Structures are given as structure tokens and as C-alpha cells.
Amino acid sequence: MSKGVTIFLVDDDAEDRRVFKDALEEVTSTVQLLSAYDGEHALELMNDRKFSNPDIIFMDLNMPRMNGMELLAELRQRRNLTDVPIIVFSTSAMLTFIQQCMQLGADDYLIKPESFAMLVSGIRQKLEKHTSAA
After folding, report:
1. 4-aspartylphosphate occurs at which residues (predicted)?
2. pLDDT at 113 over 50
3. What are the start-end ranges of the E strands in 56-133?
4. First and final CA of the chain: distance in angstroms?
């Protein structure tokens, strides 16, 4: 497991952010988790050097002010993020949403599971696939 991996989580639900953090701690202790509460907040934070170069981004779709699809399109236009894996992390399992996210530049899609154990497993799989953190 390598050190220094930074994950940026964008989700408007504070409980989902907390559960994601808890699940991530079950997977690995070698990552730094940064978070934003919606798309506009994420863009504001990305102007800060601390947030500007994450190794992987997990983002919700259904958020106020700027939704996940709008954020995804905006992030894919940023030169410094073209190679950063973006994982959509949403309750929506609709194939049309998943396809639309992939067309906008998402690298993967993780449906928010019902159980904590399934979330741990899902995060582990995505990190193994897209980083060297798990």
C-alpha cells in the first residue's frame, strides 16, 4: 500500500460523508480524505492548493446548487484533473444516468449500497482499480 493518496469526496449528505469516511478507514489508513458538500463548494475548494490535485474523486449526483453531472463536466475541463479518476457515488442505479456519467467523463460508478459491509467492499474495489491505496 502506498502512502500519500488523497481522496476528494463531494456529497451534500453529511451522514453519507461520515459513513464513507468510516468505511474508508476500514479499507486503508494510508489516504487523506477531503470533502465538499456540493458541486459549487467543490469548485471553490479546488482553488485551494490543498484540494487542487486529488488522486481520486468520489462524487454524488443529486446535490443542490450544482449537481454531480454539472460538476463532472466542469472537472473534466480542468487540465490538472484530466487523468484523475472520477467515481460517481450515487443512490441512482438507472442505466441512463450511469451512461450519461460515463459520456461526461466519469471513470466508474458506485451505487450507494444498503449495508456498511457492501460500502467497504465497493470502496476497496474502486481504490484497487483506480489507485495504489488499497
Report:
1. 60
2. yes
3. 56-59, 86-90, 108-111
4. 6
Distance CA 35, CA 10 (A): 6
User: What is the Cα–Cα distance from 118 to 112, expressed in whole angstroms?
Assistant: 9
Q: How far from the centroid of its chain's Cα atoms is residue 18's Cα?
A: 14
pTM for the structure as a whole: 0.91
Q: Locate the domains of the chain by residue range.
A: 5-130
* Contact present, 84 and 108 (Cβ < 8 Å): no
All cell numbers assigned to 134: 488499497
Give the Cα separation of 58 and 62 in Å (integer): 13
Segment 23-82, tens digit of pLDDT: 999 998 888 999 999 999 999 998 887 777 899 999 999 898 888 999 999 999 988 888
Q: What is the third-level CATH fold of 5-130?
A: Rossmann fold (3.40.50)
Say if CB 34 and CB 51 are below 8 A apart.
Answer: yes
User: Look-up: residue for cell 486503508?
Assistant: 28
d(CA 31, CA 108): 19
Q: What are phi and psi of 27, to 5 degrees?
A: -80, -50
The type of residue at 91 is T
